[in-house]
Design a protein that fits this description.
By secondary structure, this protein is α/β, with parallel strands linked by helices. The chain is built from 18 helices and nine strands. It comes from Fasciolopsis buskii.
Length: 416
């Protein structure tokens, strides 16, 4: 059996892959994706040095479930030793270790990792070679293509020679298949918006599997060939978020992605969903939004290929590079500036509203509390059994032998 077939057979011949996404591919979303046709998942990108040095960061990354297999844990690194040491810690919980060579963001440039390592072939060879020698799991790489097809193929062959067992290629083209292709499995990634794109990509690129990121965020059922209601999908995701808990900010982020087009039609729900403090609140607001949307018959804000209550991709506005007229460019630049100013104003308004909401809650909490019966200067604890503030409570019971329920709750929250 060939190296390509051997690895894919071991994993059950996965064809549909969920991309690694920071704040986007947490355990709840991975399990949600598997419910709708995902075969192979990735963890969010993990910074290897932070993973080794920061205990809280390390704990936040360690979200695994036995049902979430096969799973690839992705790290970014520019150190052979740090990459290998961090990967060794997660070996029992996953099926492969991925080196991110595709992240194009500014933070990757400053940290010299991701796509900004693709020109340092000597260092990459050391990182992959060191890991493949010292780890039991296969090493994979997520890469971007070079402008020249020949250089991309040479790059892929170098990674294979260094010890990579699988490549995920962002921007793979039909010219890359054939006799010049590497012998290890290749996953194609980039602009997968509909299920038809999945089938066409497999056919035209000869890839072993197809990965989706942005398209999956807006339609989590893309690999099942479905385009369900955004309300059904949002509520279904909340079910997984309750089963596999994560931070509420991540949950809200996913809900906003699914409801993107619907919120453009019903912007009055944007703030209520954004300020929801519990999953139960999110469920309530989504149900209310569904009731309002039941009266909709067409799209009024955006020209979409489908009704706004149906899951569909968000297509970014195309940039017209053919404009050479200075006046046209000036008008376009002014529109961009106005739009940026508008976005800044909206962000400031959201922040101000959020601050006011927090202050109102603090004021309400303070108004309901009475002073400490011992010092009469501080407010008593909400759950203190002897109506004391925290300072007086410690003075009255320095050995901590008679802790009240409120303090026990606080201590557990502090040290957990």
């Amino acid at each position: 059996m060939s190296k390509r077939a051997d690895l894919m057979v071991t994993w059950g011949n996965p064809k549909h892959v969920l991309a690694p996404m920071v704040d986007g591919s947490e355990l709840a979303w991975r399990m949600f994706g598997r419910h709708y046709g995902v075969h192979l998942t990735y963890t969010p990108m993990i910074h290897s040095v932070m993973f080794l040095k920061d205990r809280k960061y390390r704990q936040s990354c360690l979200q695994f479930a036995k049902e979430d297999r096969p799973l690839i844990a992705q790290f970014c690194s520019n150190s052979p030793e740090a990459f290998t040491e961090a990967a060794r810690a997660v070996e029992p919980y996953c099926d492969a270790i991925d080196l991110n060579l595709g992240c194009p963001q500014g933070i990757a440039k400053r940290g010299r990792y991701g796509a900004f390592l693709q020109d340092d072939w000597e260092l990459l060879s050391k990182i992959i070679g060191h890991a493949s020698t010292h780890l039991t799991l296969p090493i994979t790489c997520k890469i971007r293509v070079f402008p020249e097809v020949e250089r991309t193929i040479e790059y892929a062959k170098m990674l294979e020679a260094a010890g990579a067992s699988l490549l995920t290629v962002h921007g793979r083209t039909r010219e890359m298949k054939g006799q010049e292709a590497v012998s290890i499995p290749v996953i194609a990634n980039g602009n997968i918006q509909y299920f038809d794109d999945v089938q066409r990509c497999l056919s035209e690129t000869n890839a072993d599997a197809v990965m989706s990121a942005e398209g999956h965020l807006h339609n989590p059922a893309i690999f099942a060939g479905l385009q369900p209601s955004v309300y059904d999908m949002s509520l279904d995701y909340l079910r997984f978020a309750e089963k596999y808990p994560t931070t509420l900010s991540i949950v809200r982020g996913h809900v906003f992605k699914i409801l993107h087009h619907a919120l453009n039609e019903h912007p009055e729900f944007r703030e209520t969903i954004g300020f929801a403090q519990h999953i139960k609140e999110l469920r309530l607001y989504i149900d209310r939004m569904r009731v309002v949307c039941a009266n909709c018959r067409t799209n009024t804000v955006n020209d979409l290929p489908h009704p706004h209550w149906i899951c569909q991709p968000y297509e970014r506005p195309k940039v017209n590079n053919s404009d050479s007229d200075p006046d046209t460019k000036s008008i376009s630049a002014k529109k961009d500036t106005d739009r940026q100013d508008s976005l800044v104003d909206q962000r400031q308004l959201r922040r101000e509203t959020k601050r006011n909401l927090k202050q109102a809650r603090r004021d309400q909490s303070t108004a309901c509390r009475s002073p400490c019966v011992y010092c009469n200067s501080n407010l008593k604890g909400n759950q203190c059994l002897i109506n004391a503030c925290r300072g007086c409570c410690w003075k009255l019971d320095p050995d901590r032998t008679n802790r009240c329920s409120g303090e026990i709750k606080w201590m557990c929250g502090y040290f957990s």
